Amino acid sequence: MGGLSASLLIGVQALEANQGALNATSNNIANANTPGYTREVPQFTEATVSDVNGEVLGGGVELTGLQSVRDELLNMQIDQQTSAQSSVDTQSTSLQQAQTYFTTTGGDIASALSSFSSSLAELSANSSSTAEQQTVVSSGQDLAEAFNTAANGLTTVQSAADTQVTQTVAQINTLTAQIASLNGQLWQLQASGQDGGTVEDQRDQDVQQLSQLTGISITQSNTGETITTANGSPLVMGSQSFSLQTATGSNGTQQVIDSSGNNITSSIQGGQLGGAIEIRDQTIPSYLSQLNTLASQFSTAFNAAQAQGYTSSGAQGGNFFTVTSAANAASTISVSNSAQVAVSSDGSSGSNGNVANLSATLTNKLPSGQTAADAYASLVYQVGNDTSTASSNSTAIGDNLLSLTNQQSAISGVNIDEETTNLIKYQTAYEAAARIVSTVQALGTVTLDMGSTQSY
Amino acid sequence: MRVNPNLVPDILAGLQQSQTTLNQALEQVSTGKSVNVPSDNPAAASEMVQNTIETANVDQYTQNVTGVLSQVQAADSALSSVVSSLNQAISLGTEGANGTESAANQQAIASQVQGILSSVVTQANTSYEGSYLFGGTASSQQPYTADSSSPTGYTYNGNTGQNSVAVGDSTNIQINLPGSQIFSNSTTNVLGSLSALVTALQGGNSTAIGTAVSGVTTALNYVSQQRIFYANADSQLNSQETYLQQETVNLSSQQTSLVGVNMAQAAINLSQAQTDNSAALAAAAKVLPDTLLNYLVAPS
């Protein structure tokens, strides 16, 4: 048979348990807007039942702990999508900048090709006019400058991506060090049988930030999380972190070196780092190489047409365009000093026979198999298409990510309405438990008063 | 299943989307273009490269046609004067061949024909905007100058070159015949025939004059044939001009369909986007502050 003191004990336990639950609820409400916070649910269990002389008595309630509600699989999916999105976002930003050089504004290659072509047509009708010849020279200069502007613009985008590589690697190292240290704390907590709670929230938050920087792969082991890059170079193993390094490569760009000294630049995928490397090493070089081919082949064809004719002064046509480096034709193309248009086909000043040859370099196919305008138009298509694909990919992944975060939020997020309800629930329970204590106190007084005339 | 308590990301995504649509609609209305950067429509942007180049070229070809047309017409009218001069020479020659004319009259006719010769030379030296029309490609020097050592009294300073003018992509129209082909050809020499007539008239031999007159007649027929070249060029240029006008219209309608904006549609899109955006904002304002706390009575 339990005594009054047993009831008192149950009341006190209930007070404590509900106070703990109230604390947890308050903490949930307080952290409703904390990024990465996982709601904590108080775990009540009925305390040990006592069996006194065959009579089973309840032992009250016990708050065994707080359980963070999280879904690891969902977190992993979110990390993956975050990497993918941050990679396309990085590419999209660079491409948005790059495509402005291919927009018809007046200073672009299409406009310059157009005025160069029409200046040649004009020259065909007024071949002996010095002014028209000068117009061809200055349109040629505009064309060369348009090539220079586009090539330099692309190079600027490329070097911005290169800078981003160095910065991102530094951020990755900071984060991996933090994650390793949190892993250590978490391991100690879990070893002592406690819920990871806040530490785990922080760790998950850091891992998500890390996945924004580069694509990662996570494996769980009994010593804690192991995080590697997509190609398997270790970043974090339990409480130990491995930092990446950058070194200037043979082509002058920053290469990413893992902790064992391997160059892993080309195998990095996803995240800002993957996006920046893709832009720097694949996308922009492909555009630049097309521009260079076009500039180099067009200038060669035009100079060859020049050589077939004679200038107004009767001299054989010299090189109109100068390209100092075929590999960087687009950025180095210029109109030769004192260039003269080889108008005449027979050396007489009135002949315009070579203008048709000069114009033909614009309408004939270059060695690439396309005319200059077509080659440029394909490049415009490619830049436009890449940019629009990057931005629609970003939208698509963004939608996917939003739906994943919504799922995560549905599981782990703090619902103010729910917490308010819990608050009322625990408040009522606390008040009732307090009533148990006061009731037992009253009963105790009555008991002490038994057989006594004196009232206490 | 627990419901996602956090509406903020969804609402923000919705707001961002409606803001993007609004910005796009606004950009289209304010620029009048549906393609402002290549990513708006890569295929259209790429076709516009060709369109831009072609439009500028067609403009220039049209100007070329207009310019060259006047030049061809000037050459044709010079040749037309030559034809009437030659006709005049033939009737004068026929008159001179008539045995009734006195020697003095024949001398007078001879000097008239001499005058015709120099007028034909003047026509052969016609220049248009500073360049000689019948000097081949040596258009900066006078094609015919007096030369006493030459049997005709004139020597040809030009060459046999011909110029073509671009009036379309890879369409070049030849616009001149060298004077050596029209006036001083080795088989039918216009100047030579006139000069022979002068000599015959001065000699006073009716038979010789008759032969010389028939020589001028042959020259007349020959010049008339050469005029066909200019007539052809003229008609080619005219039809090319019509084609270019059509092409200008085609290019500009292609441009409109590639990058243009249907203003009525764009205005409707803009107003639709505005409505959507306001609706999204209003919904956000209603939903966000609503919690159970709003309905709980504070404990007294």
Descriptive tags:
heterodimer; A: about 450 residues; alpha+beta; 2 domains; four-stranded antiparallel beta sheet; two-stranded antiparallel sheet; 10 helices; 12 strands; about 60% helix; about 10% strand; rod-shaped; B: about 300 residues; mainly alpha; f41 fragment of flagellin, N-terminal domain; two-stranded antiparallel ribbon; 7 helices; 6 strands; about 65% helix
Word description of this protein:
The complex is a heterodimer of chains A (456) and B (300). The mean pLDDT of chain A is 89. Chain A folds into 2 domains: 1-69, no CATH class; 76-298 and 377-404, no CATH class. Chain A has 10 helices and 12 strands. By secondary structure, chain A is an alpha+beta fold. In chain A, 44% of the residues are buried. Chain A has helices at 4-30, 72-99, 109-125, 130-191, 197-213, 271-307, 329-332, 355-363, 372-412, 416-449, and strands at residues 40-46, 50-52, 55-57, 61-68, 216-221, 224-229, 234-237, 240-241, 245-248, 254-257, 321-323, 333-335. In chain A, the strands form 5 sheets. A 4-stranded antiparallel beta sheet of chain A has the order 5-6-7-8, covered by helices on one side. Chain B has a domain at 52-254: f41 fragment of flagellin, N-terminal domain (Up-down Bundle). The longest helix of chain B is centred in the first third of the chain and has 56 residues, at 42-97. At the A-B interface, helix 2, helix 3, helix 8, helix 9 and helix 10 of A face helix 1, helix 2, strand 2 and strand 5 of B.
